Every structure is written in C-alpha cells, then in structure tokens.
Amino acid sequence: MQPPSPSEMAVLKTLWNEGALSAREVHARLGGPQDWSYSTTRTLISRMVEKGLVSRRDSHGLAVFAPALSKAAVLSGMVRRFSAQVFDLDAPLPASAFAGSPLLDDDDLAELETLLEQEGGEKEN
Predict the structure, then answer these.
(1) Which residues, 6 or more positions from 35, have their beta carbon under 8 angstroms from its beta carbon?
(2) What CATH code is carried by the domain that includes residue 16?
(3) pTM of the predicted structure, to 2 decimals
C-alpha cells in the first residue's frame, strides 16, 4: 500500500474521528480549511476508494464513506517506510515513540505495536 498523501490523511483522520460520512459532510469539515472545491473533495474520496483507503456504502440512497483500514494499519506502514527510508533501519521505530499523539489512544497504540511486531522481519521498499 502506498502511504496516504497529506490530503488523504486529512480525510482519514476526519473519518477515524467521526465515523462514516457523506462526501458533502467530509467537504463541510475539510473543504474550507483546505480550500477545496466540492468536486475536489469528491475526486479525492473516489480515488481513496479505488486505492482501498476508504470504503463506500449506500445508506438511504446516500453514499457514505468510512476508513477501510484502522489507524494502526495505516500508520504501521508509514512508520516502517519512514524508518527504512530516513534512518536505514531494518526494523521500525517502536510504537511507544508515538505515545504522546492525540490521534492514538491506548488501544490504537497496542494494535500498532502488534502490527509492527508482526511485520518485524519484512522490509518495505
């Protein structure tokens, strides 16, 4: 999986924090601060669905979007890639390095630690 772009991360953070939202709701929360048009928001979300970052379902005739992966699943790949590319490490930084992040609660940190340990022998390119 390619790491999410900064714009994709903004959408993922919103969905992780608020749950499933329509494109209009995502745009209401991010469009103004990001200076996006509604069509930009729709295009971004559509591409995220194609990449497998976001799932789409219909609810009462309205498309709603939710993160397809947990925070820990996305972040473990990013941590592993960062560790390898920046520090030339074969193993990622420990999950405890992110304990102060307001994005991660104790359950997220535990899942991140488990994922990083499971991937221990694998090195991403």
Answers:
(1) none
(2) 1.10.10.10
(3) 0.84
What type of residue sits at position 35? D
What band does 118 get if pLDDT is binned at 50, 70 and 90?
confident
Domain presence at residue 51: yes
Please report the pLDDT score of residue 98 as a whole number: 87
Helix (H), strand (E) at residue 88: none
Helix axes 23-34, 6-18, angle to 10 degrees: 130
- How many whole angstroms separate alpha carbon 52 and alpha carbon 42? 15
Residue with tokens 């309205």: 62
Q: What is the pLDDT of residue 8?
A: 96
